[in-house]
Amino acid sequence: MVAYDRRHIWHPYASALGDAPLFPVVSAEGVRLRLADGRELVDGMASWWSAIHGYNHPALNAAARRQLDAMAHVMFGGLTHPPAVELARRLVELTPEPLQRVFLADSGSVSVEVALKMALQYQRARGQNGRTRMVTVRGGYHGDTFGAMAVCDPEGGMHSLWSGALPEHLFAPIPPAGFARPLVDADTAELADLLAKHGDEVAAVVLEPIVQGAGGMRFHSPAYLARVRELCDEHGVLLIADEIATGFGRTGAMFACDHAGISPDIMCVGKAMTGGYLTMAATLCTDEVAETISRAHGAFMHGPTYMANPLAAAVAVASIDLLTSGPWRDRVAALEAGLRTGLEPARALPQVADVRVLGGIGVIELRTPVDMARVQPAFVERGVWVRPFGKLVYVMPPYVMTADDLALVTAAMVDVVENVHTG
């Protein structure tokens, strides 16, 4: 299996000529992955942050089987179906009240493309044809498609290769670090200056609220986010919140925007929406955005083949119901407490630049990049699955992880950083 994979399959963010460690998984249950050689790994990554209920969950399995017996897919042009309607109902009920319209997309990156296109078409519908640029912040990550790449960090991010080929947007500094940091005028001064100077060119401000994910796993304050909302209102631009990684409880609030008590004009959600079972995302917007576009242009010009896939939508409904009917706040709070306790010893290590925790997110930031060829097998040897990148050794565990399993994961993180990644 591994030999054929190496010859024919190209993995994410990897060389086709590489020989990076590769571990075949044959099954998954709860928070554990079972490898082909029989070893079990406690998964600290929740399948890139999506499998919040763990693997092979009976309720999600049952939802998939029920829907599969009815229909796996049907086109969404001119048709509708119960799973799509029920999913939209759940999303409208959960998200901030002004978000009343739901566009179902194939993936997180596509939902960002949809959001950017919505913002541009909205401005054109208002007669603001010159508003063709976005304002965002450095350190961000919004996906791997071209529109999404254009609003990722242009220098420090993973898409710097495409400089010159992407649309050129406007970048404010990385938000000041610290969830509890008090806001001062200097924190948003450059962002305010960009909007003052280029306001007639800007369609929207787009950012990841509270937590910048794959661009650096940084946390900023709700006060900063609230000020961004005010600046958008002052300059007549839309606010796009990319909640793909932060949505559905990951930061300790249902959505990260809830920490600041604000609503964006457009919100992207995905990842945990289907509990890690199937690819699906959504872009929500206000009535104002949807109706302005529709009155002026008659239609919003986007429509993926697998839009509103009934199988994915049915599992998403079950996943959201499972989340909201359970003690998710207590579970995320327990993860936060366990991560703080378990990762604290790393703070004293000379190779560690920072340790930070928020909700179900735990991060050890190193002073030098991780050597994946050494570090990845070391985690497997310790019975855990942790997938570092750059200078970051981080986890976003399933919400159902026990205290003992979490302690195993955090102990492995500290051990590997201390004894394998020696700086």
Automatic annotation (TrEMBL):
It is found in: Cytoplasm. The record marks 13 as: Participates in the substrate recognition with KAPA and in a stacking interaction with the adenine ring of SAM. Its main location: cytoplasm. Keywords: Aminotransferase, Biotin biosynthesis, Cytoplasm, Pyridoxal phosphate, S-adenosyl-L-methionine, Transferase. Pyridoxal 5'-phosphate binds at residues 108-109, 242, 304-305. Its cofactor is pyridoxal 5'-phosphate. GO terms for molecular function: adenosylmethionine-8-amino-7-oxononanoate transaminase activity. Substrate binds at residues 48, 141, 271, 303, 387. The modification N6-(pyridoxal phosphate)lysine is found at residue 271. Pathway: Cofactor biosynthesis; biotin biosynthesis; 7,8-diaminononanoate from 8-amino-7-oxononanoate (SAM route): step 1/1. Signal peptide: none annotated. Catalyzes the transfer of the alpha-amino group from S-adenosyl-L-methionine (SAM) to 7-keto-8-aminopelargonic acid (KAPA) to form 7,8-diaminopelargonic acid (DAPA). It is the only aminotransferase known to utilize SAM as an amino donor. This is Adenosylmethionine-8-amino-7-oxononanoate aminotransferase.
